[in-house]
């Protein structure tokens, strides 16, 4: 079994390698190909050698290849994972800083920043999918490149490659439920979209206890460690109880927009402060320092500070579930097909699903509250217009998408910031031109 | 035929009186009852006497009654029109100033202000409808009390009274089309919701010419006089053409939020400036000065400055169309019943309809673009949650409604402003209490 | 204004000519082209000369042309009407007799017979529409070729020609309501599909009186003259009242299948009896005898026995309504576009609509009872599969369509009768082959 | 754990007892209460004593109680299964013979017979559910009383009791797939309604192989043993391939109505022949003879001839899956909740689902072909009208339901046969009266 990791020079790589090592008995990976581009060559070599040392130390029968030749790597692959970032961390920092300088949420996957990341990433992922159609048409593409919902939907709609999107955010919901119950023998049925997911049912000892446990769930969430990317501003118990479902951390951008914005603007400090991207960049630099140590042959603990914890674990679990057809229930990004009847059949949603070797089969939840249906309708229409814009390069479609996004300021300013963004990301947006 | 006008002390009254005078041949109104509350007694007397002089001068067979006794007035009425304002102009001014002082759009019918107006008005209109069920169960309620969409929907869903909502905004679309074509022999098919309406088709000489005439339509709109309440910031031709439909003036709050907000904040000047409500109040004071003149026996030209031009004209047209069953096409607020299949059947929408003596029958337009469907989905869900909150007094439902509204800031601030509003409007919100 | 009538050699022609003569003041038709095929040459000449004598006698400024050259006729036409019959009356007789010989309803437009007529007619109408796209792209096609719903839908979906379908059956509903009320000042709002239509609302003096007048409506229908094609078996008042809408005559095939079948089988008498097609053929022969009389210059009264009364009247009314943009309410076959939200947007339905010069705009009725929705779902799916089969020639699609039709026997017999039909109609079904 | 079996005197009982014996290790049932009514006392004693001997011989720690006191039995139950037949086998025989004598399909669960069975059974099951609400509100009702879809839906909609419906028919699909593949390591994803179910996907080794295996599936089905109740007339490979899904045996009543009817009529022989009910009655009499043997202490092999094979096995599997929360995939009758988006949320459907201790969670299949959607729409509307009639006793609703059913003759005959049925089943239809 051959695994290919696009963006193999990422600081995350030791985590996924550890994942494969730990599962080797049930998931006998024989080749791991770490692929990167010329600009990431140095990082690829550093982290790649660590990966090789890890595998060697583990004593498993598996070979780690490092390459800049994507097509060579893809040939005959069984699973392809993606963790690349078009424009590297510098692009993310622009996605954060430009909106902030105009008083808008500046965030990697939400609002204007998430929109720009989609414009840059979708053409690249479709290129990869096209290569896969030729070189490994039966391989699974396990996407955890953000914005995961849009990137996954682009592949699912515009290529023939089997693709599942993954995210670490839902895992925090599950961990919190576990912490609250002091028991792991439950089923948390989640449904929504990536970064816009809710826990809808909590099945425990024969009943859906979510309604009576919501207040408790909120308290546990407010007090426990959550995803690092999003400031853990406490949820209002009344608000969540009236909603009747448990939101994920990222919902704060929509339900507490002002507090999140204030928080970000304070940190940004009129341009003098750092954004999350810059912090992560520093963490990464430190990590790569560690990775260079030729005596290091395990995943260093410091990687956990990086943010994307559980990501690679989820990816390895998913690969194993597909490979062994073990019918595990996971929360994944897959095609709607009527699971949320008010969204198009070919929309990508995030949902609890049973994993089979033919892919995820969504579990059907009861109808969402009308407010949640409305929110998903907004977010998905924004996403579909964004995907359309990313593929066509149509400026007006871009404006229309942004006009629907609740985190973007509307009117003349939308055009101005879009122009500024096109200018700033010019190298990675070949189809796009400023419009006066 | 007996007509009752609730809020008869309004400065608008001369317009509706003129309307009945002009149509008297086809619409033989024999009694007009102007009703107001104690607080509006003086204005009722002033404008009421003018009304009486107007009718007398016109020499038609019709008697104008002035009363503070609503139930007496309603008995046996054929048509009831409403133009009242719970809390008078002072309440409107609060609806504008409080949001502005928190950096949000401060507007009578949109955003936080419109929400508060709905909370105050819906219980009152339902009281009126209840009286009507008893005293004139077959009468038509012609509502032009704002926010018209929510007020009309409340009556249509929660009483047995036949109700149609009216607005002057669509008339500007029609006037603009007329100006553009230099011809009045066309059919402008409009659909959407009140203050969120689009011209969807422009039938002219056998074809729907809207698509090729949109740019022209935009230019004509940008250059012509429009509804006074909304600053006429020019539309971007590209934006409208990509949308494929002609928006109304109020769409600027949603498509150019930043410019509208800036405009308002500049005028507000940190609290030192006046809002539209205050201007209107001054205009009204001047009007009432004029109305006092015992020699005045026609509608004074100055009333046109007031803002609601065409309103009363529309009301008289509608009453005549119902009375004569003339199958006129008008743009009215009526129940959806599948006209917009993605909204509930019992939602009130604004649409071109054929008027019969059994009420409006909507004309069916082709499917809206997905972006418009999404926007209406948001706005209608906001409205339905607001109606629910207005009836129940539930604080959490109010927060949920506001969280969906694109013109309201989200998070802790929502609660703070709601509390401030409840405090400020205490006298007209008996069910509502501040929540810390 | 040039009118073209395809199938101009039909015995109906004097009626449509009379219609144009009577309306000439408002509808100044200057040329009428009667087109037929070689096989219909003699009839065309006979009825065509009568038409010429009628126009001459009326003294209007209009010329009647007779031609076998369809393309010459179509050039520059304003309106094209169709009244042709592929395979002439002989084909209809086969459509009736073959199903009857297998114990199934044998009827021109319903069941197996209607299905076969669609297979023969759809390719021909699409050919005509293709000619029109080239020779008179702005002309209106007024279709009254049966099965009207499928033939109209085929044109509306698979050509660019503007097309409205018409039928005389709804007129009987209107006439019956008029007879019942003793007044013509009402609005009968009908909705459904061709030959599967219901009166949904009866607006009269300000109210929808249908519910309380249904029993009366049933009685009036049972006692009055109805469409000649369908035996007037009395409706059960209980049944119709529970349905809550007034059915058309053709509904008897679905709601009283057994009685209709018995009636037909008795008349058929094991093959010794005549079917309706044979009777009509005889009537037609007599009519043509009359038509030959060079002194005849008006529509002979005997034509009314023929069956399609009101058809041509409806066509002339529709043409006039489009031409003068008079906003008349008519019951027509037009695209659904959400009027019946449970059917596809591009399905052709029959509905009350306001006629404009840009075509019919459907009036929106309230939701149909669930049983009616289900029935229309069946009938429309049958129709769409039939259209698909008529275009593709796919045998399995044909079987699938027939399997859904409530008047067709299911199983091996379906295949047998389809084979027999293909054999019998071979000359007009070039794409079809028997399958053993 | 206490299990209650309503209709415990059924000849099936030894099978369910064997099921509990075989699963005792994982499903430690401690009490089994067999309940029956006075009329079934003798059978209850015979089969009950056999059950007691079986349990004793198996040496498991479980007690079998026999009682005519349903309320005593229900108190504190964990699971209640139902296998009763209102009116016993005599009622079934009438359901078969009366329609046949009028030339209609005479069948226990389909057409007129299934309709009558629903009228008799639904009031009784709702009584049982009412008792359960009082005596064992947390128990699961495992229904395998036919017509299972309607009986289960009645409980799911009109009581608070948790209910799952079961049928043995889907098991034959699974067995046939197993036989075809020579492997049991596949997932057959089925969806539809009870006795109207299709295999939609066949996941095997990472792919949905149903499309390319359909012809094979048809051949295997045609050649293998299938459910005994339905004559195994071979499927037409073309028909099934065009459908794109594998039908169940009962689909023959709808897809091959004529052949099935001929088959039945031949056997019925103008009233001289036996129906399936009579055969089963004879088999049962023989079985009860066997059961009386005091030396018999195992399920006799002859029971397999009875027809309902796998039924009890399915029930025991389901009870075990709920009890152990083992996430097994089973095909069950449960609430739709959007699984089939074109049917109401509260409709009961049959679908592959993951079984948890909180009930089944449906697996989401891709959209059904439009023909299947239409068919389910018919069948479900028929069912819902039938349930409504069974509860209300409304004669017109009954006629409406029957008019929709494809196996029932329409018109005057419907009323005649309904009257005959009401007369024949008088003792078990207290609400119903003949209408002349």
TrEMBL record, chains A, B, C, D:
<dbReference type="GO" id="GO:0046872">
    <property type="term" value="F:metal ion binding"/>
</dbReference>
<comment type="similarity">
    <text>Belongs to the glycosyl hydrolase 4 family.</text>
</comment>
<keyword id="KW-0464">Manganese</keyword>
<keyword id="KW-0479">Metal-binding</keyword>
<protein>
    <submittedName>
        <fullName>6-phospho-beta-glucosidase</fullName>
    </submittedName>
</protein>
<dbReference type="InterPro" id="IPR001088">
    <property type="entry name" value="Glyco_hydro_4"/>
</dbReference>
<dbReference type="GO" id="GO:0004553">
    <property type="term" value="F:hydrolase activity, hydrolyzing O-glycosyl compounds"/>
</dbReference>
<dbReference type="InterPro" id="IPR019802">
    <property type="entry name" value="GlycHydrolase_4_CS"/>
</dbReference>
<feature type="binding site">
    <location>
        <position position="146"/>
    </location>
    <ligand>
        <name>substrate</name>
    </ligand>
</feature>
<dbReference type="Pfam" id="PF02056">
    <property type="entry name" value="Glyco_hydro_4"/>
</dbReference>
<feature type="binding site">
    <location>
        <position position="195"/>
    </location>
    <ligand>
        <name>Mn(2+)</name>
    </ligand>
</feature>
<feature type="domain" description="Glycosyl hydrolase family 4 C-terminal">
    <location>
        <begin position="190"/>
        <end position="408"/>
    </location>
</feature>
<keyword id="KW-0520">NAD</keyword>
<keyword id="KW-0533">Nickel</keyword>
<keyword id="KW-0326">Glycosidase</keyword>
<keyword id="KW-0408">Iron</keyword>
<keyword id="KW-0378">Hydrolase</keyword>
<feature type="binding site">
    <location>
        <position position="167"/>
    </location>
    <ligand>
        <name>Mn(2+)</name>
    </ligand>
</feature>
<dbReference type="InterPro" id="IPR022616">
    <property type="entry name" value="Glyco_hydro_4_C"/>
</dbReference>
<dbReference type="GO" id="GO:0005975">
    <property type="term" value="P:carbohydrate metabolic process"/>
</dbReference>
<keyword id="KW-0170">Cobalt</keyword>
<feature type="site" description="Increases basicity of active site Tyr">
    <location>
        <position position="108"/>
    </location>
</feature>
<dbReference type="Pfam" id="PF11975">
    <property type="entry name" value="Glyco_hydro_4C"/>
</dbReference>
<dbReference type="InterPro" id="IPR036291">
    <property type="entry name" value="NAD(P)-bd_dom_sf"/>
</dbReference>
<dbReference type="GO" id="GO:0016616">
    <property type="term" value="F:oxidoreductase activity, acting on the CH-OH group of donors, NAD or NADP as acceptor"/>
</dbReference>
<feature type="binding site">
    <location>
        <position position="92"/>
    </location>
    <ligand>
        <name>substrate</name>
    </ligand>
</feature>
<dbReference type="InterPro" id="IPR015955">
    <property type="entry name" value="Lactate_DH/Glyco_Ohase_4_C"/>
</dbReference>
């Amino acid at each position: 079994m051959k695994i290919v990791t696009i963006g193999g020079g990422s600081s995350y790589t030791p985590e996924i390698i550890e994942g494969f090592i730990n599962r080797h008995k049930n998931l006998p990976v024989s080749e791991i190909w770490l692929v990167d581009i010329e600009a990431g060559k140095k990082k690829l070599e550093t982290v790649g050698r660590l990966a090789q040392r890890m595998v060697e130390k583990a004593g498993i029968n598996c070979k780690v290849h490092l390459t800049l030749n994507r097509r060579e790597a893809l040939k005959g692959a069984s699973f392809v994972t993606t963790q690349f970032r078009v424009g590297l961390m510098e692009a993310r920092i622009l996605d954060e800083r430009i909106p902030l300088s105009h008083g808008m949420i500046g965030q990697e996957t939400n609002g204007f920043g998430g929109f720009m990341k989609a414009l840059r990433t979708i053409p690249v992922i479709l290129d990869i999918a096209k290569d896969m159609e030729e070189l490994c048409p039966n391989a699974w593409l396990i996407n955890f490149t953000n914005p995961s919902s849009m990137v996954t939907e682009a592949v699912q709609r515009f290529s023939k490659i089997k693709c599942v999107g993954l995210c670490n955010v839902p895992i925090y919901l599950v961990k919190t439920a576990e912490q609250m119950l002091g028991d792991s023998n439950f089923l948390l049925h989640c449904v929504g979209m990536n970064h816009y997911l809710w826990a809808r049912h909590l099945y425990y000892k024969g009943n859906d206890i979510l309604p009576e446990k919501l207040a408790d769930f909120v308290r546990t969430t407010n007090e426990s460690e959550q995803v690092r990317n999003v400031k853990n501003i406490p949820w209002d118990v009344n608000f969540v109880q009236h909603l009747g479902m448990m939101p994920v951390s990222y919902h704060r951008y929509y339900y507490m927009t002002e507090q999140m914005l204030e928080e970000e603007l304070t940190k940004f400090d009129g341009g003098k402060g750092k954004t999350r991207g810059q912090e992560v960049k520093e963490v990464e630099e430190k990590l790569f320092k560690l990775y260079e140590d030729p005596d290091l042959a395990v995943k260093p603990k410091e990687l956990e500070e990086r943010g994307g914890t559980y990501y690679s674990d989820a990816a390895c679990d998913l690969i194993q579930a597909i490979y062994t057809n073990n019918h595990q229930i996971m929360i994944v990004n897959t095609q709607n097909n009527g699971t949320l009847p008010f969204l198009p059949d070919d929309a990508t949603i995030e949902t609890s699903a049973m994993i089979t070797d033919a892919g995820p089969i969504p579990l059907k939840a009861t109808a969402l509250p009308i407010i949640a249906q409305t929110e998903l309708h907004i977010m998905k229409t924004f996403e579909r217009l964004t995907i359309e814009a990313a593929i066509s390069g149509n400026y007006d479609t871009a404006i229309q998408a942004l006009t629907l996004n609740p985190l973007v300021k509307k009117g003349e300013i939308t055009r101005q910031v879009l122009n500024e963004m096109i200018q700033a990301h010019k190298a990675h947006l070949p189809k796009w031109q400023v419009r006066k």
